[in-house]
Write a structure and sequence with these properties.
2 copies of one chain form a homodimer. Chain A has helices at residues 52-65, 84-98, 103-129, 147-150, 152-158, 172-179, 199-208, 229-242, and strands spanning 2-9, 12-19, 22-29, 38-42, 68-72, 140-145, 162-168, 186-191, 214-219. Chain A has 243 residues and is α/β, with parallel strands linked by helices. Chain A has one domain (2-242): Rossmann fold, CATH 3.40.50.1820. The first copy, chain A, has a 9-stranded mixed β-sheet, with helices on both faces. The relative contact order of chain A is 0.14. Chain A binds chain B through residues 190, 192, 206-207, 212-220, 228, 230, 233-234, 237-238, 241, and chain B through 190, 192, 206-207, 212-220, 228, 230, 233-234, 237-238, 241. Strand 9 of chain A pairs antiparallel with strand 9 (214-219) of chain B. Chains A, B: GO terms for molecular function: carboxylic ester hydrolase activity. Chains A, B: Belongs to the AB hydrolase superfamily. Chains A, B: It comes from Actinoplanes philippinensis.
Chain lengths: 243, 243
């Protein structure tokens, strides 16, 4: 792990780091020492590890839970170079979608391919940041919507340190198989008028989680509309209950 | 309005009263004075105004929100006499259900008939308790599941004093018409394995609310299973935001 820069604002310490060639951002309480819960935030498609939506949630989790928060650039996103194979696959997919093919199946296959890389990357980042004295080996939570759900479900299924997950805007077609291996508490968000994930696919993914403690929250709005702020309040309380 | 009895426990004052021949229970903070939010709790089928599930929620709303809470015996429930017409209709319905008819349409028609009586009764109880110095003309909320939703939706649609409602375990077939007249914030609960309200009917009722601010919470479990305690926490915060 290599530290690239540190800064502080409003009681939150912000570290930019790399683990191997994977760039990540870590937020912790200003004067933290000792082990604490660690929440991984998975950013959305086309976003990056310090996008405003990530930063907004990271600050809340640090301030309200005293947690550490880490966010990782997905391949081809943020400070990472263009990923030739993924880029070629995405371009080919777009051509097939333009020619009338069902985008869901193509996006599903694409996310599965990316997850084969991100699951071990994210686990390596967890290993690295948990060696820090002010992060430590506390319980881990996961928060991710859309791409952050598509990559998050395989991660949560694979990683036993994760004790609770807020997921959403994902589809059963993409993730039902991995979801069936998840037994930790899940809070699952649906945008009721999602134009990219058909409603029945959202509900199918919620159905697929094996977690006995799971709850679905649906709100009006499209795929990219801002989530209601009360859902962030709810996520804070969800992690407070389970981490 | 006639007071029948008062008692106190754990900082909550409990008044049993009648408005005309309608029995109701009112809970307020022990030493309350002045206007405050008033939350109407509609009990479930076969229950009554002081059933344990009602009492549990009433105490939380009083303690956490400083609210007044009122609960009203539905016709034929609690301290009310058997209602001959409703009783005959219910008996006839049961015979038709036993003979293989779809229960949803029958229950829907039955609840619509009962609501014609309960909407004016509940409005009269609101009028009466809001004359009390320690209740006053504050904002009104509504909480009701199952029968409390079936009767609650027409009440919330009719009563402009209601500013926010937690509803659930109800069906679009029963209540979509009235729901389309509701524009106040709604938190809507679904039991994901409800054996009495088909899932698509639950979702249809959520769809039907005209409220721009509405949120659906679904949790595993059947129609009569206990709601997760975090949903009561959520209801407290929902009313805190909107009342």
């Amino acid at each position: 792990m290599r530290s690239l820069s540190t800064s502080s604002a409003d009681g939150v310490r912000h570290l930019i780091l790399t683990v191997g060639d994977v760039p990540a951002a870590l937020w912790t309480p200003q004067s933290a020492s000792g082990a604490r819960p660690l929440i991984v935030i998975g950013h959305g498609g086309g976003q990056h590890k310090t996008a405003p939506a990530v930063l907004h949630r990271a600050r809340r989790f640090v301030a309200d839970l005293g947690a550490a928060v880490v966010s990782i650039d997905a391949p081809g996103h943020g400070d990472r170079p263009v990923h030739a194979a993924f880029d070629a696959a995405a371009t080919a997919n777009q051509a097939r979608i333009d020619a009338g093919e069902d985008p869901i199946a193509l996006i599903t296959a694409f996310q599965a391919m990316v997850a084969e890389q991100t699951v071990p990357e994210w686990r390596a980042v967890l290993d690295a940041v948990q060696t820090l004295d002010h992060v430590g080996a506390g319980p881990v939570g996961y928060w991710g919507m859309s791409l952050g759900c598509g990559l998050g479900v395989p991660f949560v299924a694979a990683e036993p340190r994760v004790r609770a997950a807020v997921l959403g805007l994902g589809s059963g077609l993409a993730n039902a198989g991995d979801a069936a291996r998840i037994t930790v508490p899940v809070e699952f968000l649906v945008q009721w008028h999602d134009e990219r994930v058909p409603r029945e696919q959202s509900l199918a993914l919620f159905d697929a989680f094996a977690s006995p403690d799971k709850t679905l929250h649906a709100n009006p709005g499209g795929h990219s509309d801002r989530l209601p702020e009360h859902e962030l309040d709810s996520a804070v309380r969800f992690f407070a209950r389970h981490l």
